[in-house]
UniProtKB/TrEMBL annotation:
<keyword id="KW-0496">Mitochondrion</keyword>
<dbReference type="Pfam" id="PF01025">
    <property type="entry name" value="GrpE"/>
</dbReference>
<dbReference type="GO" id="GO:0000774">
    <property type="term" value="F:adenyl-nucleotide exchange factor activity"/>
</dbReference>
<keyword id="KW-0143">Chaperone</keyword>
<dbReference type="GO" id="GO:0001405">
    <property type="term" value="C:PAM complex, Tim23 associated import motor"/>
</dbReference>
<comment type="function">
    <text>Essential component of the PAM complex, a complex required for the translocation of transit peptide-containing proteins from the inner membrane into the mitochondrial matrix in an ATP-dependent manner.</text>
</comment>
<dbReference type="GO" id="GO:0042803">
    <property type="term" value="F:protein homodimerization activity"/>
</dbReference>
<keyword id="KW-0963">Cytoplasm</keyword>
<protein>
    <recommendedName>
        <fullName>GrpE protein homolog</fullName>
    </recommendedName>
</protein>
<dbReference type="InterPro" id="IPR013805">
    <property type="entry name" value="GrpE_CC"/>
</dbReference>
<dbReference type="GO" id="GO:0006457">
    <property type="term" value="P:protein folding"/>
</dbReference>
<feature type="coiled-coil region">
    <location>
        <begin position="62"/>
        <end position="96"/>
    </location>
</feature>
<dbReference type="GO" id="GO:0051082">
    <property type="term" value="F:unfolded protein binding"/>
</dbReference>
<dbReference type="GO" id="GO:0051087">
    <property type="term" value="F:protein-folding chaperone binding"/>
</dbReference>
<keyword id="KW-0175">Coiled coil</keyword>
<dbReference type="InterPro" id="IPR000740">
    <property type="entry name" value="GrpE"/>
</dbReference>
<dbReference type="GO" id="GO:0030150">
    <property type="term" value="P:protein import into mitochondrial matrix"/>
</dbReference>
Length: 236
């Protein structure tokens, strides 16, 4: 039965033959054939036929291969399968490598975000204590009758001015650390920053509006630290 040898297989056979017989000259090589043509009157120089062409001509139309040729064909088939397996392994490893890089980048971004949040909200507990102090100062300053703050009551005047300055300094410190008061009077009720204690029917007010603030709230970097306690309008 005739066997057709493709160009790739022929090249593979040639390479393996040269590996197995590196020192064998062309005359005795099992796959390389030299032809010598002799002129009728004078000898011509030796010519070497293209090895690929010789091997192709040797196998085309041949019913059976020699033992060496069979071994070479088997070896080529094994190497082709091994190349296919290695190619699949390479693709699989490339995919795993890319996934690993993506996972590492996600972890890096997540850790960076957590570090930034830790920097921003690390003072959250301290701020909660400070806003209680701010509430006390606000209550103290509002409890002093403004009409009594004059030269006739120097002690009360000095005390009031001291409380006012302390309260103003505290509010400035809040601003530097992005701690802001939430006073939502006449604004739409927002459950993220407001807590409704009561509801009230109010004319000319649509439902869900804040009509009064019982206790102001605070937010730190747009995160609710303490919700504002409010009264909300309702439909009649």
């Amino acid at each position: 039965m005739a066997i057709a040898i493709k160009s790739a297989s022929v090249r593979g056979l040639l390479k393996l033959a040269r590996v197995k017989f590196p020192t064998c000259n062309e005359k005795f090589h099992p796959l390389l054939i030299s032809t010598r043509t002799t002129a009728t009157k004078e000898a011509q120089p030796e010519e070497t036929v293209d090895p690929l062409q010789v091997i192709a001509e040797k196998f085309v139309g041949k019913a059976e291969l020699t033992e060496n040729e069979k071994k070479l064909v088997v070896e080529i088939d094994r190497l082709n399968k091994e190349v296919g397996t290695l190619t699949e392994d390479k693709l699989e490893l490339d995919d795993k490598y890319k996934r690993s890089l993506a996972d590492r980048e996600n972890v890096r971004q997540r850790l960076t975000k957590q570090i930034e949040e830790a920097k921003q909200f690390g003072i959250q507990g301290f701020c909660k204590d400070l806003i209680e102090v701010a509430d006390v100062l606000d209550t103290a300053t509002k409890s002093v009758p403004v009409s009594e703050v004059n030269e006739k009551n120097p002690h009360l005047k000095n005390l009031y001015e001291g409380l006012t300055m302390t309260n103003a300094s505290l509010k400035q410190m809040f601003g530097r650390h992005k701690l802001e008061a939430v006073n939502p009077i006449d604004l739409k009720f927002d459950p993220n920053f407001h807590e409704a204690l009561t509801q009230q029917e109010v004319k000319d007010k649509e439902a869900g509006m804040v009509v009064s603030v019982i206790k102001i709230g605070y937010k730190l970097h747009e995160r609710c630290l303490r919700p504002a306690l409010v009264c909300v309008s309702k439909s009649p």
